[in-house]
Amino acid sequence: MSVSIVMLAVMATLYACGVYLLLERSMTRVLLGFLLVGNATNLLILITAGKVGSAPIVADGVAPEDMTDPLPETLILTAIVITFGVSAFLMALIYRSWRLAHEDSVEDDADDIALRAGTSMVPSDGNEQDSSDTEFGTRGEAVISTARESRPRDDAAVSDAPSDDGGPR
After folding, report:
1. DSSP 123
2. What pTM did the predictor assign?
3. Where on the tree of life does the source sit, at the highest rank (predicted)?
């Protein structure tokens, strides 16, 4: 098996450029980096597939040694489908980020800064709700608390209900 040096160089360049773009702050560049890494992975599978041969269709006069292994092609097709699905998801995230904030860069939050500094953040007790954290504002909080308060709670009906053995609880 001889491997083409040009294919290896193209694959390495695609991986290097893809990883560089994945480490950027812009979500569009992250998407492009993901696409480059996906294509580099497809090239890697193609390079490691082995020698080129005839189609893997059993016919008269074709020896099994002369056929190409179909597994690398199926792995490449699967990788293409997975890359397409994740790319569509990333494009939806980028679009949503652009519609909400008119920017596609990722900003540092307090946890990122604390992690970079080597300190850990004290976890909150979870009781405080920040209404600016959601696009619903205070309406989302009101709907949840109203639904919880509107449930009927009849403790007497629950205590008089028969248990599994037929007697009262």
Report:
1. P
2. 0.61
3. Bacteria
